[in-house]
Design brief:
There is one protein chain. By secondary structure, the protein is α+β, with helices and mostly antiparallel strands. The protein is built from 11 helices and 11 strands. It has helices at residues 32-48, 54-67, 82-110, 115-146, 161-177, 183-195, 215-244, 254-290, 315-331, 337-351, 376-380; strands at residues 23-24, 26-28, 69-71, 74-78, 148-150, 153-157, 198-200, 204-208, 292-296, 307-311, 352-355. The protein has an 11-stranded antiparallel β-sheet. A hairpin with a 2-residue loop joins strand 3 and strand 4 (74-78). Helix 9 (315-331) runs antiparallel to helix 10.
Length: 386
């Protein structure tokens, strides 16, 4: 793992001091109405161009969101170009489409009448998609960070997307083998693989301190609660049907009751499961943030942090926030996306804490070359985010 990006300055020129008692201010200034105006124009052009405008639409949204977010009163800037994303997507599809067609031909033509052999052949294909999804996630984030600037200085992500893809495949396999119990460790390892390779300019790097810190116990509470909720709902439905099934159950209100109560029970189960998951997710985000800090890029790891990261939302605040967003998206059939995105940015900037007082004037641009093309595979796997 690299200690500094290519072209970084030697230790003696990085004149930043250990953190004081200050805190960096992060704010979002975006307005829902302005984002809706951009989104409506994007939808119109998408229709007129049969979807080709998608990359220009995503770039417009990013430019607006980045420009409305500030650190220490100075706005971020997004410098990505739609053509870069389009070229990346075309290259990715040029690889994926022949592979998918070859797989379909092999399974449906050459292996007709051999379902067992077809399933055996399909297994490496599914594993390959998991691998490519990991590669796409890392490459997409690397591109987006390289096109993000603050004070004219860009962020960067070094390291190998191929290694990250292999780690994603291995951890996902362990996740399946453990019936989901490996989730906290997978999140910690993959987050570390990203954060420990993240830089800002040539003077500042991110460091992630691994270790579960009780996170696995919190996940066990979610996992056990979800299992109990599932079996409780199943028992409730079975008992209900037995109590309401009589000789004259086809008359009166019983048939309606038999249909309505299971539907309500399923809705309650989904709500309960979501609340349990979001309660764990809040703990996970607090853990990941607390394990993250910013250090001088030059020199060995383990130096005194310049900035310590933290989030200060409560579990209930996070549950309310996410459930409101999800309900708005479902009830509006996706049309509430600009409102949800604006609300999410305000929430993130309000609760993300950057504790420290680094010398920001000491930062300088990195000489490491950024990637040339955009998020091709991420678009193919719908992993592009904003």
């Amino acid at each position: 793992m690299e200690n500094a990006p290519p072209g970084s300055r030697p230790p003696e020129t990085a004149s930043m001091e250990p953190p004081g008692g200050g805190e960096l201010s992060l704010a979002h200034h975006g307005k829902t109405g302005e984002l809706y105006a951009i989104s409506l124009i994007n939808v119109l052009y998408r229709i007129l161009t049969l979807g080709v405008y998608h990359f220009w639409a995503k770039t417009r949204v990013r430019k607006y969101v980045w420009s409305q977010t500030s650190l220490q009163g100075e706005r971020f800037e997004y410098t990505g170009r739609a053509l870069e994303m389009l070229i990346g997507y075309a290259l990715a599809m040029g690889i994926l489409i022949p592979l998918v067609l070859a797989w379909q031909f092999l399974v449906q033509v050459l292996l007709v009448g051999s379902p067992g052999l077809g399933g055996l052949v399909s297994l490496p294909v599914y594993l390959g998609f998991i691998y490519l999804a990991g590669f796409a996630r890392y490459s997409s984030l690397r591109y987006m960070l390289s096109r993000t600037r603050w004070r004219g200085i860009r962020f960067g992500l070094v390291g190998s997307p191929w290694n990250f893809a292999l780690a994603t495949l291995g951890y996902t396999t362990l996740l399946g083998m453990t019936m989901g119990l490996y989730w906290p460790m997978m999140q910690i390892h993959l987050s570390g693989a990203i954060l420990n390779n993240l830089y800002f300019g040539d003077s500042l790097r991110v460091r992630f301190q691994t270790g579960t810190g009780g996170l696995f116990r919190k996940f066990l509470l979610f996992w056990g609660g979800a299992a109990l909720l599932y079996f409780g709902i199943m028992v409730f439905i079975v008992v209900l049907f037995r109590l309401t099934t009589t000789e004259d159950s086809s008359q009166g209100a019983l048939p309606l009751l038999q249909m309505a109560v299971p539907m309500l029970a399923v809705a309650g189960a989904v709500t309960g499961f979501s609340a349990l998951w979001l309660a764990y997710r809040a703990a996970e985000l607090r853990f990941l943030a607390a394990a993250t800090r910013l250090e001088p890029a030059a020199g060995p790891g383990g130096q005194p942090p310049l900035v310590q990261v933290a989030v200060d939302f409560s579990t209930w605040e996070y549950i309310k926030f996410k459930m409101t967003n999800n309900a708005a998206m479902v009830l509006s059939l996706g049309m509430a996306y600009p409102w949800v995105l604006t609300r999410t940015m305000h929430f993130a900037c309000k609760h993300l804490r950057l504790q420290g007082d680094p010398d920001l004037d000491a930062l300088a641009q990195s000489s490491a070359p950024p990637p040339r093309t955009g998020e091709g595979l991420a678009e193919a796997f719908d992993l592009g985010g904003i």
